[in-house]
Amino acid sequence: MEARQDTLLEKSTTSDKANLILFVAGKFVSLFGTQIYSFAIGLYVLEKTNSGLTFASSIIFSMLPRIIIGPIAGVIADRFDRKKISVGMDFICGILMLSFFILSKFDGIKIHYVYLFSFLLSTANVFFDVAMEASKPNLVDNKNLTRLNSLSQSITSIASISGPFLGGIVYGLFNIQSFLFFNGICFILSAISEAFIDFEYNRPKERNKERDTMPMLQELKEGVQFFRNNKVLFSIMSFSLLINFSMQLSITVPLPYILTNTLELSSSQYGTVKGFWPVGMLVGSILLSFLPQRDKIFKQTVVMFTIFICILMAVALPVIPIFSGYSKGVYFVYYMIVMGLGGMVVAFIDIPIMVVFQRLIPDEVRGRVFSLVGTMAVGIAPIGLLLAGILIDHIPTWILPICAGVLLIVKLIFFIRDEELKKLL
Predict the structure, then answer these.
(1) Lowest-confidence region among 121-135, 203-217, 267-281, 311-325
(2) What is the pTM of this model?
(3) Which of 3, 370, 395, 413 is deepest in the core (most CB within 10 A)?
């Protein structure tokens, strides 16, 4: 009997590790292909058209599916087999890339083909992302959930850092059509690796049969209702959305302006400073994957939120008159440290909170809630960008990061005073 239990335990541990390795391998291949494609095809559009508007349009066509289709993808992920969705969507991405390759051989790479395939590729990615995110708690034991999320974030950070670099090499050394073929094969290999993942490893056995006949609109409303009725989740999510909004207001728009216009750093220095954010996130993710998983994260979250607010406000310091007068080298090093720390702190905030979300949200509504969160996160960014873009022409630049910091301090006070959050986190 003991020998049988040992065998079962060994099998369970093996499956847990196998899922972890297969998930990392699939995500690595799929994400790198997407990042390199986005960068290389963007360069191609810019070179062929020399038009910023055309380039921006190709990005917009990539963003639209996440805003429009995101909530529907959540309903699909909760109703149907998530493994079939994940494997199928990666396979479809491969077929799309190979179709683009064949089409380009006969008719060249036309701009309207770029728009079409960017939209279709992004649509497939939305369904893939929602199904995979909702499945994470089902792939490994609870004790390994933080490690899975940390590794996932590490791959995302590495792809963000090296994607543009590798994309530039690919674009310079190889024909863009050859890359389309190579990328298509990568997606299909990723789909094959994901086909061996056990999506039922840690999934609850109970399933609501009534859901199979429920109208899709009613399922969507159910997801929204769950989110609205859960005050704790709503509070955490509203804070995360406010952070996303504040980052547009304090970093995305003001930082390039401060570095290149006010402090007159070179474009390569600006690129280096910007690259320290994903480097910081990578370091934070790796550290979290080795640290023991904590059951209570409220104090840690409050400390990290406080440091994050200080970092946002620190973006403004060099352009406040009393702190001016230092050399460009000093400012260059200062902003590398600020961005690196910012990325690392965000990893220490995002990953533990994501683990809490994954544990608190029942499996049967997880896809819908995650897709709603993703849609809101993407949807709020343009509002922050637009507001910062309007204000930066009329007020001193340093005011924007300071205002964003004050906004978050007010929210942090409400966060600390929330007794339900203290018990939960």
Answers:
(1) 203-217
(2) 0.71
(3) 370
Instruction: State residue 334's pLDDT score.
Output: 92
- Is 369 within 8 Å of 210 (Cβ atoms)? no
- What is the CB-side half-sphere exposure of residue 192 using CA atoms within 13 A? 7
Q: Has residue 423 got a pLDDT over 70?
A: yes
How many secondary structure helices (H) and strands (E) does the chain include?
Answer: 16, 0
Name the burial class of residue 1, with classes exposed (0-12), middle (13-18) and buried (19+) by CB atoms within 10 angstroms of its CB. Answer: exposed
Residue 216 burial (C-beta neighbours within 10 Å; 0-12, 13-18, 19+): exposed
Sequence-distant (6+) residues with CB within 8 A of 91 are: 187, 188, 191
Mean of pLDDT over the chain: 78
Please state, in angstroms and rounded to a whole number, the distance separating the CA atoms of residues 178 and 41.
12
Distance CA 369, CA 70 (A): 10
Give the integer Cα–Cα distance in Å for 53 and 164: 20
Distance CA 95, CA 93 (A): 5
Tell me what pLDDT residue 5 has.
45
CA-angle at 283, arms to 282 and 288, nearest 5°: 100
Reported as a pLDDT band with limits 50, 70 and 90, residue 421 is confident
Q: Where does 69-175 have alpha helices with state H?
A: 70-79, 82-107, 111-139, 145-173
Please report the sign of the dihedral spanned by the C-alpha atoms of residue 159, residue 47, residue 186, residue 169. Answer: negative
